[in-house]
Amino acid sequence: MADIALADPAQASELSISALGKRADTSVATVTRFCRAVGIPNYPQLRLALAAAAAREHALGGERPVPGTDISATDTLGDIVGKIIYNEVRALEDTGAGLDVEALGRAVTAVAQARRIDIFGVGASAFVGQDLHQKLHRIGHMAFVWTDRHAALTATALLGPGDVALAISHSGETEDTVEPLRAAAERGATTIALTNVPRSTLAQSAEVVLTTRARETPFRSGATVSRIAQLALIDCLFVGVAQRSFDATTTALEETYGAVQRRRRPQAQRRTPADD
Hints:
This protein is α/β, with parallel strands linked by helices. The protein is built from 13 helices and 5 strands. The protein has helices at residues 2-7, 9-13, 17-23, 28-37, 43-59, 77-98, 101-113, 124-138, 149-156, 175-186, 201-204, 224-244, 246-261, and strands at residues 117-120, 143-146, 164-169, 190-195, 208-211. The chain has a 5-stranded parallel sheet with strand order 2-1-3-4-5, sandwiched between helices. The longest helix is centred in the first third of the chain and has 22 residues, at 77-98. The protein is globular, with a radius of gyration of 22 Å. It starts with a helix and ends in a 15-residue tail after the last helix. Residues 1-57 form the HTH rpiR-type domain. One of its GO terms (biological process) is carbohydrate derivative metabolic process. GO terms for molecular function: carbohydrate derivative binding; DNA binding; DNA-binding transcription factor activity. This is Transcriptional regulator. Keywords: DNA-binding, Transcription, Transcription regulation.
């Protein structure tokens, strides 16, 4: 553990206690004992100490920018690239490590069997919802995406048992997303929340909760990190649904790809559906 922390204190400061234990091939209890052995009362305090050490190293002229920190006015373009890539990779790793696979399985089953799937999201989350919508539509599932509150509420009036309502919100407190999900629940639809906050209002309003683990810095340019984590979970959900009807999905993807193949330039026609 000491070697990991000393090799890259900035990266180590971003690890959860279980992630550090896994990387060091040891247990959470051993990590806790390590903290006490070096005079630090608990793991959160160790993370703060590592982050401070990384910041000091950077301030003293270290070549590497401090990963996980916010974009500053003095960052070079290379620094910006390094920070963004680091934060997004970290969000993907943390989201994967913390994902409730059993909850994902229930979401996959509900979507795969649904008569229709209505997706709610506004702002940056709307783009994530649109991505899921087009994916599901391509493999023959009746899916709709609603980015306007009134349109979403109107759509919920047609939902019932056997339907799915999926709401996406990083904070889980966006009323334009929470209200339609609750309305869908009242109609008897299965409700799924995709959020970064497991105790949020949105999560508490859903039967199934899929949680991202994205640490947004104050410089939230287009909510970049949260969007990447949300898209990753959407991909997991979609592939899980597609796998349930593998042969039919393969055929549908080939046919939908072929529908626009003539609109591509000649060199692009040699590509396969998997390339897109």
